[in-house]
Design a protein that fits this description.
By secondary structure, this protein is an all-alpha fold. The protein has 29 helices and 4 strands. 68% of the residues lie in helices and 2% in strands. A two-stranded antiparallel ribbon has the order 1-2. A two-stranded antiparallel ribbon has the order 3-4. It holds the Pfam family Ion_trans.
């Protein structure tokens, strides 16, 4: 092979290994120029610009009309929000669209036309951009006065398509929907049957005084369905049953049966089905990610094989260790993994690697990330060694926890004693004195731990960083308090000086002390297990949070367009009695133009809400609005909360199994990703599957 061919094969191997690290598909162009463009596109600066563009276009909703740039959301008290001039946000939006057009163009070129036709996400990407740009042109042609902007609802798509894990999660959710639909249908049948029973039980009678249940909750079919649907969420429990229960205690049986069947059985059955099905689909998604990684590593091996002259009697192809060293120097990967692979190569006695050896070498990528704490300092003095033993012992940490608990108890006692006192009647001497004592102890404890463990080892523990930072903040606040208000003494109630009063300073110190009490969590194993589970969800399951942002954003924009102007400041409302000319005009407009309720409300802002509800058929509008809120409840509460519970259970069970089967080591921390959660149950792809996928590559032509 020539020198140019050697460089090409090295660069191909580098890109394939980086694809494997990031679980990316290798079905892209592999010529020299395309490889350079590919690496540039996936560089940190390029991906940072793309992420910033997505953040900017999503954040425009806070600035666009109606703007959210107000201190309070209460329409009675807030000042008129800033209304950006036409063309300002549209110019920023156009710049974002240009970045997205460049993004989709580069992606389309790199994968080629054949792969582009197979990629539905890219086709949807182009369609979204076409619709958004068309709507942008329409918006400018109307001088930004139109009320409906379709492109605002489509903005979350840009966030969705940029994350492979979010797309996999969405695909898993989509595959789970048929199983969820069966339970939701059963839930609808349950709701419908009990609605019929309710309308029969609470029908209108001759005695109007006994019809409170009918009037309030079961007047007609839509109201009955709504009342029981809200009861399913327990939001109106027990209000919905009070009128009937006041009339006859036996009516409570109806509501008890509805709640038990709906909440205890059907809703929990839905959670169980979602957990079972979604875990299976997520497992399949993670399995496909593992397959992508194995294909990328094998592709790197195959392109490096022609660089090594294989003996004629060799049974299999080999890769030179020297060529692999060249590849590793160019690959962008975790330094820990790179050092481990280089260490394995140096300790190996072979100068050639087979496919199995090459694959095993990169299994370092699948291992837990291990963080080992630095060693403690070694003191020569016998006295210092004893001090180090005492202050690094776990009992010293337990003493600190007892002192923190005593501090919390003392704060609670003072707060209970001063709960009914006015600020002028309080004596802050006792609270200030005990806070000063405890903060000095916290400072001494921190310094002694640093002396015993060394600063590097002390700072390597998250609990110590949390403890040390809060202690430093408490010390600064205490010194500031003494500098402004002097030392505590009986009758310590000085007037306000500076930004915060003495009471505000003391309250801030007390809140930080209460927050500092969370330091006990690492010392309680089961509590620490729960907290680490939650932290792992925050760190590793960002894809689910991203989809949640997409759902919130889409519903928020839809709600703004549907209910814009529906809330009127109470101070601007006047009561008009029947017969007033404006009242008659309102009746005439309401009969002719019920659909323009929001515009009518924005224009007049003068009719009392009771008359609006009656005259403008507000019940009809509310019924249509119920569809929006029911859809929101189904997606956010029923589906998404159960998905989150399923993932929380999966993560907790996984950590619990590891906690039971492996002793925790004090100097080692294991950091796992969502792919590693399922590592023990994943299946390795076979040799035939890997080679079949490589031979299907549209741009890579192997020698064998």
């Amino acid at each position: 092979a020539t020198g140019a061919d050697n460089d090409l094969h090295i660069n191909q191997a580098v890109v394939f290994i980086e694809d494997a690290i990031q679980y990316r598909s290798i079905n892209h162009r592999v010529d020299s120029k395309s490889l350079w463009l590919y690496r540039w596109y996936y560089s940190r600066i390029c991906q940072w610009i793309l992420g910033l563009t997505i953040t900017v276009i999503l954040a425009l909703a806070f600035v666009e009309t109606p703007s959210s740039l107000t201190v309070t959301s209460d329409v009675r008290y807030r000042h008129p929000p800033w209304d950006p001039p036409c063309g300002l946000t549209e110019s920023i939006e156009l710049l974002c669209f240009l970045v997205f057009v460049f993004d989709v163009s580069v992606k389309s070129y790199l994968i080629g036309w054949e792969e582009f036709c197979k990629t539905k996400w890219l086709m949807a990407y182009i369609l979204t951009l076409v619709v958004s740009l068309t709507d942008w042109i329409v918006s400018l042609s109307f001088l930004c006065t139109e009320t409906v902007r379709i492109r605002r609802i489509l903005r979350p798509f840009f966030l969705l398509q940029n994350s492979s894990m979010m797309k996999k999660t969405l695909k898993s959710i989509n595959s789970t929907l048929p199983e969820m639909a069966s339970v939701v249908l059963l839930l609808a049948v349950h709701l419908s049957l009990f609605t019929m029973f309710a309308m029969l039980l609470f029908a209108r009678t001759k005695d109007g005084q006994q019809d409170k249940e009918w009037v309030g909750y079961f007047r007609n079919l839509p109201d009955s369905l709504t009342s029981l649907l809200v009861l399913l969420t327990t939001a109106n429990n027990p209000d919905v049953m009070i009128p009937a229960y006041s009339k006859n205690r036996a009516y409570s049986i109806f509501f008890i049966l509805f709640t038990v069947l709906g909440n205890l059985f059907l809703m929990n059955l839905l959670t169980a089905i979602i957990y079972n099905q979604f875990r299976g689909y997520l497992l399949k998604s993670v399995q496909s990610s593992l397959f992508r990684r194995r294909v990328g590593i094998r592709a790197a091996f195959e392109v490096l094989c022609p660089l090594e002259e294989t003996p004629a009697n060799a049974q299999e192809l080999c890769v030179s260790v020297g060529d692999l060293f060249q590849v590793l120097q160019k690959v962008e990967m975790d330094p820990r993994c790179k050092q481990a692979i280089i260490r394995s190569l140096k300790t190996s006695s072979c100068d050639r690697l087979s496919a199995a050896q090459f694959q095993k070498l990169f299994e370092e990528l699948d291992k837990d990330a291990i963080k080992q704490h630095p060693p403690s300092p070694e003191y020569q003095s016998h006295f210092m060694q004893k001090l180090q033993f005492v202050f690094s012992h776990s009992y010293f940490g337990c003493l600190g926890n007892v002192v923190a608990l005593a501090n919390i108890i003392s704060i609670c006692v003072v707060l209970v004693m001063d709960a009914d006192k006015r600020p002028s009647e309080r004596d802050d001497f006792f609270l200030g004195a005990i806070n000063c004592f405890f903060i000095l102890y916290y400072l001494l404890e921190t310094l002694l731990k640093i002396l015993a463990m060394g600063f590097k080892r002390y700072w390597s523990y998250p609990s110590n960083r949390f403890d040390g930072l809060l202690t430093g903040i408490l010390l600064i606040l205490e010194i500031s308090t003494f500098a402004v208000y002097g030392f505590p003494h009986p009758g310590w109630r000085p007037e306000l000086m500076g930004l915060l009063s003495l009471w505000d300073m003391v309250r801030l110190v007390n809140m930080l002390i209460v927050f500092r009490f969370l330091r006990i969590i690492p010392n309680m194993k089961l509590m620490a297990l729960v907290v680490t589970t939650l932290l792992d969800l925050v760190k590793n399951l960002r894809a689910f949070a991203g989809i949640l942002v997409v759902v919130f954003y889409a519903f928020a924009i839809t709600g703004i367009m549907l209910f814009k102007g529906a809330v009127v400041p109470m101070g601007n409302i006047r009561i008009f009695v029947p017969g007033h000319p404006l009242h008659q005009e309102a009746v005439l407009i309401s009969k002719k133009k019920k659909c323009d309720f929001l515009a009518f409300l924005n224009h007049f802002q003068t009719i009392f809400i009771y008359h609006l509800c009656y005259l403008l058929s507000f019940n009809l509008i509310c019924r249509w609005a119920k569809i929006y809120f029911i859809a929101w409840w189904l997606i956010s509460s029923v589906i998404w909360v159960n998905l989150f519970v399923a993932l929380l259970l999966e993560n907790f069970i996984h950590k619990w199994d590891r906690h039971c089967h492996r002793e925790s080591l004090s100097d080692i921390e294991y950091q796992r990703t969502v792919e590693l959660m399922f590592r023990d149950v994943l299946e390795e792809p076979t040799e035939e599957e890997l080679m079949e996928r490589l031979h299907q590559h549209p741009h890579l032509h192997l020698c064998r």
